[in-house]
Specification:
The protein is of the alpha/beta class. The protein has helices at about 5-15, 50-55, 70-90, 105-110, 125-135, 150-165, 180-190, 225-230, 255, 265-275, 280-285, 350-355, 385-395, 415-425, 430-450, and strands spanning about 40-45, 65-70, 100, 115-120, 140-145, 170, 195-200, 215, 240, 290-295, 305-315, 325-335, 335, 360-365, 370, 380-385, 455, 460-465. This is Putative dehydrogenase.
Length: about 475
């Protein structure tokens, strides 16, 4: 085998081995699988942070022609990492390096004629303007989760994608995995009896939330603060006035601590819901809840709470012949993780295993439960254990069948999106699917922000019983110049 092939194999093996790190390496095994053999010209908006792994998902098989990041130091680092990706794989770096920008508008205005698609890996408040700008040029878009942090923006993205006729994707990798499909097939084909309830939880937030004190500060020399704010009204730069122990990555919003702000992020629920609620959304036939109950820590007009507990009420459907409640729990409540009580049917799972499940899901049936102790439903199990063995045998015997289409690029939503652009097909989390999933998630924030049980009329995009909650459906204002005309 040629030495460059060996190097590439070694690189891919190493990348897979660190998949559990903060920014997991997706499956990079893409080359040769695009049957049309076309290399796409792509741009990455938000090239630092999460954009690093999103770039690695496609960089060896397509052309990254532009990188955008509001922080010049992170932008330059992203460019160096892009070049190093090829040398680490034993391949020649592109002769023409990516063009570098701090403003996505300028990049799209200058580069749109050469682009096939855009990957958007920015803070939540930038998803909508960047995607709308790209789709205004009829560019295919892959947008990190959640698609936006208001329901109105999510619906506008869906309409714009339809009008532009582009191929779309949300970056929720669980949607591309085998585990989520297995869980749905087991439940639909009776492996756990009748589905009665669903429990979901996460240890987030792992960034500041709740009532937050801030203080004025100097804008970091490398940061374009105006571009970072984009659609939000300009305000002076500030930092957190909190004990250092409460700050995981720096004292400012950038690059990590923005998620607890309603303006810029969408709290623990918005950050993890599009992962953890994904299998539930699929199993319940992409239904939207009709009512949501809420309890939470203190909420402010600017900040999400340190913990929340929600009950999403669903009408009867295909996999739940009776009305069903989906519970969501996040954060630390009264000094302990805010998570459900382990069901009696899961006695085969050790207490240590249960304790380590910082995020997860339980689908409770009359005869058994489907359990996954991670955010993606990557490798679900069935309890009691004999029911799992019985289910595996039923699969081997063909009594439980594979009815869900599998992804051509498991654990790689960016690669799946690129594959579909080249070869045809529909990405697993295209906007027809992921806009409704994101709405399902963000409905919980309407309840959290209003502090009351809400009833939702999806057809009219309106909370029918708490008028005050409706002001959170859409951003109050958009700064001129940041939405493409």
């Amino acid at each position: 085998m040629p030495s460059n092939a060996l190097n590439r194999r070694r690189f891919l093996t190493t990348a897979a081995g660190v998949a559990g790190s903060t920014f997991a390496f997706p499956n990079l095994l893409l080359r040769g699988q695009n049957t049309a053999g076309k290399k796409l010209n792509l741009a990455i908006i938000g090239a630092g942070g999460k954009g690093q792994s999103d770039t690695q998902a496609i960089a060896l098989d397509h052309n990254v022609v532009a990188l955008v990041d509001v922080a010049k130091d992170r932008l330059e680092d992203a460019a160096k990492r892009h070049s190093k990706l090829f040398t680490d794989a034993g391949e020649q770096a592109p002769a023409t390096p990516p063009k570098l920008y701090t403003d996505f508008r300028k990049m799209l205005d200058e580069c749109h004629k050469e682009l096939d698609g855009v990957i958007i890996s920015t803070p939540d408040h930038t998803h909508f303007p960047a995607a709308m700008w790209a789709m205004g040029y009829k560019k295919n878009v892959c947008v990190q989760k959640p698609l936006a942090n208001t329901i109105w923006e999510v619906r506008e993205l869906h309409k714009a994608a339809k009008a532009a006729g582009v191929i779309t994707q949300m970056g929720n990798q669980g949607r591309t995995m085998e585990g989520q499909r297995l869980a749905k097939e087991w439940i639909e084909q009776g492996a756990i009896g009748t589905l009665k309830s669903i429990n979901l939880w996460t240890n987030r937030p792992i960034w500041p939330q709740g009532p937050i004190k801030t203080k004025p500060a100097e804008v970091p020399a490398s940061l374009d603060w105006d571009a970072w704010l984009n659609v939000e009204a300009f305000e002076p730069y500030f930092e957190y006035d909190l004990p250092d122990a409460d700050l995981k990555r720096g004292k400012g919003l950038h690059p990590f601590n923005w998620r607890g702000w309603w303006q810029f992020g969408s709290g623990a629920l918005g950050d993890m819901g599009c992962h953890i609620m994904d299998a539930t959304f699929s199993i319940l036939g992409q239904a939207i809840p009709i009512k949501i109950e809420v309890e939470s820590g203190e909420v402010t007009e600017r900040n999400a709470p340190t913990w929340s507990s929600l009950k999403y009420h669903f009408a009867a459907g295909k996999n739940n012949p009776e009305p069903l409640v989906v519970t969501w729990q996040d954060g630390i409540k009264d000094g302990a993780p805010n998570k459900p009580v382990k069901p009696a049917m899961m006695e085969g799972l050790s207490e240590e295993g249960w304790k380590k499940a910082s995020s997860g899901m339980i689908f409770q049936g009359t005869d058994a439960v489907v359990y996954e102790g991670d955010a993606y439903c990557a490798s679900p199990s069935i309890y009691p254990s004999p029911k799992f063995m019985e289910t595996k045998q039923a699969m081997a015997d063909g009594k439980i069948k594979k009815t869900e289409a599998r992804s051509p690029k498991p654990n790689n939503p960016q690669g799946e999106w690129a594959h579909c652009i080249v070869n045809g097909g529909t990405p697993s989390s295209n906007f027809d699917y992921s806009c409704k999933l994101t709405e399902f998630v963000l409905l919980g924030n309407l309840a959290i922000r209003s502090g009351q049980t809400i009833s939702w009329n999806a057809e009219n995009m309106k909370v029918t019983n708490v008028e005050a909650a409706n002001k959170y459906i859409k951003r109050a204002a958009y700064r001129p110049g940041w939405l493409k005309a």
